């Protein structure tokens, strides 16, 4: 309790009593202020955080404090609130308690305003350097003096001792409270005029008066206190520092002309033990960072600790090495922190700047007693881009940062910047590739655009270079006179003598090129070439490289390595490679090949190798030349030759060294050579036609082809006849990199050629092309419709799934669990759909009521397919079965129940205006009481042995019930339940027997991609080889999960070259004989289908116009067309829900409909047993007893089962 004796004698009669807080808990009320209204973000979810545990002694003190706040109108009791934020009681050193509320979740949902709070490091410099007397005033319960609007009071409610309280004033912990109160108090102080015009400094609710004389300080302090009391503020007498020469303000000790760090703050930092967690590191770093103006070279010293505070750092930390040294050094710096002078704006400032270890270091000084007295130390870490600049340019960045940091102290007064570099020359005369135009403009604006800034190069010792650091002495020795422009230019190039024009004297002239293109199979292949006028120095394909840029870098690197100790001029048509050599390669090297965000640059290792190889020649010039020109000069011919050689090596996967000897006779690509050979050389075509067998000529004659006098075979329309031996090559050429479909290839072929078998060859090329199989739409493997097997009894097998609902009261999801035997449904509203929620509901709700199930079945969502649910099922001896991805029919029962649940809930909510959580129990009762269409029994009857009693049905009165009657009832109930179980089992079909699809081990398939990032991505991935099969699913080599057979499409077995080029996984446990037999069977099957196309039909179809398959929907080509002809159908956007293959089968992508409550069939949420799939049961599969729920990595168990 505070008495009048605690108030200074000069203030007892001169200051009104309404300003004093005599109890330490009195709260004022600011006058003339509108209640604060808080705006909530749209669609925000109101938090309801439970109350934290509180010790008993703290609980009693908090209760007393709440009662006092209620009496003063700060708090009020309410009935309820949609929000709840927990409170805590913090015990002060004096033994009193402070009420703190955790409002972090409220702060996340409110619309924030721009904070208007002064910087404490800046406002300190408002104190005049000649002020000698000071007063410090601390307002009591400042935030609680601002009223809160009634419409916003519900946001800050809390529960305490079974009561709900709401704040009537803005609370502490609210993110906007400091800014709001700071503006209100500042507005109140604007009307105050101090009699002797002392300096008034305000930081939120802390006020300081600085005066030259004691009388001025006393009079102005009295005027300020009376003004505060008149506006409804309260002042704590115990915290008042009245008219003193030394005061404590914002952690600083203020006296005339200087300021120091408070000893209490230094002591608290020195007592801190080495941090062991990331949070403790942040706490220590924040405390010392507040004092960084007293610590020279703070950024460089604290850099090791700063890395530990980043998000990717470990939570558990052990300081060692540089980290422990930084921790100790920062503590020592706190012990020897100097007294900094107050700025005197009548004198000019001098800013000494330097850069060290990618940190900006500076000290702001003023002349005092013939020496430069420090006013403040500044330091900052350069951003990654500035840190990678040459030393002279890093100094420019350091000057810009230092001027920005000191502008709050200098405030536009004259300042001379002393730096050991020619900063002005670098900004005005240098145009380097190191900095972007925006960065250069920013530095020019800060440094050259400020009229109060004068730049000088240090001719004497720079104090900033003497700041503590490991390399300080070395850097001081290097800070000698130098030409900054020359040094910067030298740092731009990987070697100083490199040229971008041809050398005057050359030992050899080299042409390089890199290429990346697709081969006939659609596979990307890359190659490079290093050539001279005499021939090929080296050319090769690049295995595992799929980028032309990488190929260009490899070509340049090899050219430099092959020209070691030689004078060489290298011509390249790659702007990318030329730019790395001359412009930005060295810049990336200085930055450690990292971007401004810290991520590695693309092809960084290749750049590093190239920059190293550039040093090998004695003299070097890298010259940019034009690409793909038709010029006849030696540069154009050399570049074209290198391009052709690179493409040839890439396509043929070979390595060439000194094998092609003339630049004037370039080789052409195989497809182009063949095309020119067929079209232009008629003699060779004649020889090929005459070399065919007689039966082939007989087919030409049968197709009305004739032999001209020049012995060339042509049709009646004058088209040349192509021999069968050339069909495959020409078909691959027409298919080309555009991957034309069969019909487009036929139309191109018909323009100049004729052969009745080209149609079959075109189909084979399309069918074997891996790219076409991946990109083209088409139906997957047909799978027979199955059904779920029998369950052992009620709640022995259950299916579960999450459904999403509109957010209400924080509830957004519903976990639906259905018993396969009785169709009993349970639904639990939840806030989240995660594994912990599933585990809690199983352990707290389902299992205590219905017992432990034998199996739990679900989809592969992350909330079910995770380590938590797996360990839970293992601990409880429950078999977990996960269905195939993108196959909701496998969970047909729970999926149809979901549709029924949503439909009935929507109807009840629409008719009764109930919210969905309130309507959910009514929906569950309706579904549990609805009889099944097949069994005629409701889930309630199957479990209870009797129908559910409804209000419309009168109850049978049972009076005077004896023990014998109870026994008879139990016996009868058991008989009824047993008969109901037999009735349910009679309507449940057994699982299907035999294979449900045509796939078998050894087949090759492509797997459907249900999610594509863009329309340019393949629709199918693969091919993959089938190693295991069940009735509905397959296991493929290289694919971790089981795949439903309907999500696959069978393709031809790839050749050994394709397997090696595509790096296709082939398991060792599948014998090679199976692979070869599969290839033979698939090719024979396709050949037999093609043989149905007779030669007579081919002749009659010469004039038909076939539809193109690569660019439009597939047209019907007859009932016998192979599946490969469907290579270009429109994509199926069903996201994994396939349409029924049989006539009359319903579209399973549609939502499950529902009829009225009197009948539950397929549309009422009752699953059609014919549609459920056996991948969810535990019955025997074909040859392998493998279920979809088996873990992907359990290969040993799979092998034993097989």
TrEMBL record:
Alphabetic keyword roster: Endonuclease, Hydrolase, Multifunctional enzyme, Nuclease, Nucleotidyltransferase, Transferase
UniProt keyword Transferase present: yes
Compositionally biased residues, Polar residues: 1075-1085
Top EC class for this record: hydrolase
Domain Reverse transcriptase: 71-254
Residues in the signal sequence: none
Domain called Integrase catalytic: residue spans: 790-947
GO BP: any one term: DNA integration
UniProt domain RNase H type-1: residue ranges: 504-651
InterPro entries to which the protein is assigned, alphabetical: DNA/RNA_pol_sf, Integrase_cat-core, Integrase_H2C2, MLVIN_C, Retrovirus_Pol_polyprotein, Rev_trsase/Diguanyl_cyclase, RNaseH-like_sf, RNaseH_domain
Family: Belongs to the beta type-B retroviral polymerase family. HERV class-II K(HML-2) pol subfamily.
Name of this protein: Gypsy retrotransposon integrase-like protein 1
Species per Swiss-Prot/TrEMBL record: Pleurodeles waltl (Iberian ribbed newt)
Lineage, highest ranks first: Eukaryota, Metazoa, Chordata, Craniata, Vertebrata
């Amino acid at each position: 309790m505070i008495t009048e004796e605690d108030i200074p004698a000069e203030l007892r009669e001169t200051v009104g009593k309404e300003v004093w807080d005599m109890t330490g808990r009195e709260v004022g009320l600011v006058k003339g202020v509108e209640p604060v209204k808080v705006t909530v973000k749209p669609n925000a979810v109101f938090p309801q955080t439970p109350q934290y545990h509180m010790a008993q002694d703290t609980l009693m003190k908090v209760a007393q404090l709440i009662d006092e706040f209620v009496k003063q109108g700060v708090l009020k009791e309410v009935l309820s609130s949609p929000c709840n934020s927990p409170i805590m009681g913090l015990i002060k050193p004096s033994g009193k308690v402070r009420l703190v509320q955790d409002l972090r979740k409220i702060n996340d949902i409110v619309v924030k305003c721009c904070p208007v709070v002064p910087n404490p490091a800046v406002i300190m410099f408002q104190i005049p350097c000649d002020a000698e007397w000071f007063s410090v005033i601390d307002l009591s319960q400042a935030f609680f003096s601002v009223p809160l609007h009634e419409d916003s009071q519900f946001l800050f409610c809390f529960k305490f001792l079974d009561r709900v309280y709401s704040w009537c004033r803005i609370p502490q912990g609210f993110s906007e409270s400091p800014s709001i109160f700071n503006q209100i108090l500042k507005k109140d102080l604007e009307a105050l005029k101090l009699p002797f015009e002392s300096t008034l400094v305000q930081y939120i609710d802390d006020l300081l008066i600085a005066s030259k004389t004691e009388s001025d300080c006393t009079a102005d302090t009295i005027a300020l206190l009376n003004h505060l009391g008149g506006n409804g503020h309260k002042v704590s007498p115990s915290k008042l520092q009245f008219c003193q020469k030394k005061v404590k303000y914002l952690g600083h000790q203020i006296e005339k002309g200087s300021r120091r760090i408070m000893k209490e703050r230094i002591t608290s930092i020195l007592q801190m033990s080495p941090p062991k967690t990331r949070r403790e590191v942040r706490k220590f770093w924040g405390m010392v960072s507040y004092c960084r103006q007293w610590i020279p070279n703070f950024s460089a010293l604290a850099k090791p600790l700063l890395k530990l505070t980043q998000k990717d750092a470990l939570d558990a930390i052990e300081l060692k090495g540089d980290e422990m040294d930084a921790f100790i050094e920062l503590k020592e710096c706190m012990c020897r922190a100097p007294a900094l002078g107050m700025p005197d704006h009548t004198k000019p400032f001098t800013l000494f700047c330097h850069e060290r270890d990618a940190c900006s270091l500076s000290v702001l000084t003023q002349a005092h007693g013939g020496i430069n007295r420090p006013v403040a130390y500044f330091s900052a870490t350069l951003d990654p881009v500035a840190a990678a600049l040459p030393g002279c340019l890093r100094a420019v960045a350091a000057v810009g940062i230092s001027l920005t940091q000191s502008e709050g102290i200098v405030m536009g007064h004259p300042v001379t910047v002393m730096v050991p570099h020619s900063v002005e020359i670098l900004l005005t005369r240098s145009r380097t590739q190191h900095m972007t135009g925006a960065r250069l403009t920013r530095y020019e604006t800060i440094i050259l655009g400020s009229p109060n800034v004068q730049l000088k190069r240090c001719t004497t010792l720079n104090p900033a270079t003497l700041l503590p650091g490991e390399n300080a002495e070395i850097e001081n020795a290097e800070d000698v006179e130098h030409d900054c422009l020359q040094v910067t230019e030298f740092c731009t190039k990987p070697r100083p003598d490199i040229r971008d024009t041809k050398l005057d004297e050359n030992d050899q002239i080299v042409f390089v090129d890199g290429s990346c293109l697709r081969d006939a199979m659609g596979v990307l292949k890359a190659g490079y070439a290093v050539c001279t006028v005499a021939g090929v120095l080296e050319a090769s394909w690049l295995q595992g490289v799929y980028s032309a840029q990488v190929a260009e870098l490899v070509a340049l690197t090899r050219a430099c390595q092959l020209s070691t100790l030689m004078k060489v001029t290298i011509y390249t048509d790659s702007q990318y490679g030329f730019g790395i050599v001359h412009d930005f390669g060295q810049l990336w090297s200085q930055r450690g090949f990292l971007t401004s965000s810290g991520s590695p640059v693309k092809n960084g290792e290749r750049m590093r190798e190239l920059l190293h190889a550039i040093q090998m020649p004695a003299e070097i010039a890298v010259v940019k030349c034009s690409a793909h020109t038709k010029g006849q000069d030696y540069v154009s011919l050399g570049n074209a030759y290198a391009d052709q050689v690179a493409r040839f090596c890439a396509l043929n996967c070979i390595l060439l060294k000194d094998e092609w000897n003339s630049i004037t006779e370039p080789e052409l690509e195989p497809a182009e050579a063949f095309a020119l050979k067929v079209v232009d050389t008629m003699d060779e075509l004649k020889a090929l036609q005459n070399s065919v067998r007689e039966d082939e000529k007989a087919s030409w004659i049968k197709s009305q082809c004739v032999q001209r006098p020049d012995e060339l075979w042509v049709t009646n329309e004058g088209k040349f006849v192509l021999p069968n031996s050339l069909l495959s090559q020409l078909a691959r050429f027409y298919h080309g990199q555009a991957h034309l479909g069969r019909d487009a290839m036929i139309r191109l072929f018909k323009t100049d050629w004729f052969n009745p078998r080209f149609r079959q060859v075109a189909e084979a090329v399309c069918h074997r092309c891996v790219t076409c199989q991946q990109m083209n739409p088409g139906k997957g493997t047909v799978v027979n419709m199955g059904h779920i097997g029998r369950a052992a009894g009620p709640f022995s097998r259950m299916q579960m799934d999450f459904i999403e609902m509109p957010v209400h009261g924080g509830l957004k999801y519903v976990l639906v669990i259905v018993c396969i035997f009785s169709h009993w449904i349970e639904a639990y509203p939840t806030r989240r759909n995660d594994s912990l929620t599933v585990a809690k509901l199983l352990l707290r709700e389902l299992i205590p009521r219905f017992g432990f199930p034998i199996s739990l079945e679900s989809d592969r969502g992350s909330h079910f397919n995770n380590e938590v649910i797996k360990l839970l099922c293992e601990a409880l001896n429950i078999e977990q079965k996960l269905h195939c991805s993108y196959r909701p029919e496998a969970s047909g029962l729970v999926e149809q129940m979901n549709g029924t649940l949503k439909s009935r809930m929507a109807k009840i909510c629409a008719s009764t205006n109930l919210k969905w959580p309130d309507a959910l129990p009514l929906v569950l009762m309706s579904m549990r009481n609805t009889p099944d269409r097949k069994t005629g029994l409701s889930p309630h009857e199957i479990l209870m042995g009797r129908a559910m009693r409804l209000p419309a049905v009168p109850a049978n009165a049972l009076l005077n019930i004896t023990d014998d009657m109870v026994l008879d009832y139990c016996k009868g109930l058991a008989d009824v339940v047993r008969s109901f179980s037999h009735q349910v089992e009679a309507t449940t079909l057994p699982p299907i027997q035999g294979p449900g699809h045509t796939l078998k081990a050894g087949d090759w398939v492509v797997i459907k991609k249900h999610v594509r990032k863009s329309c340019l991505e393949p629709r199918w991935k693969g091919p993959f080889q089938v190693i295991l099969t069940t009735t509905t699913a397959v296991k493929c080599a290289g694919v971790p999960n089981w795949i439903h057979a309907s999500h696959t499409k069978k393709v031809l077995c790839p050749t050994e070259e394709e397997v090696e080029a595509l790096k296709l996984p082939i398991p060792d446990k599948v014998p090679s004989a199976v692979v070869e037999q599969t290839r033979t069977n698939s090719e024979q099957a396709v050949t037999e289908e093609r043989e149905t196309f007779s030669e007579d039909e081919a002749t009659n179809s010469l004039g038909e116009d076939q539809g193109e398959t690569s660019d439009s929907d597939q047209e019907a080509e007859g009932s016998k067309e192979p599946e490969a002809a469907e290579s270009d159908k429109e994509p199926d956007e069903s996201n994994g829900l396939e349409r029924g293959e049989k006539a009359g089968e319903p579209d399973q992508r549609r939502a499950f409909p529902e009829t009225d409550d009197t009948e539950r069939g397929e549309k009422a949420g009752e699953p059609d047993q014919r549609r459920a799939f056996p991948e969810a049961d535990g019955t025997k599969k074909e040859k392998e007893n493998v279920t979809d729920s088996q873990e992907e990595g359990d290969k040993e168990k799979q092998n034993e089962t097989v």
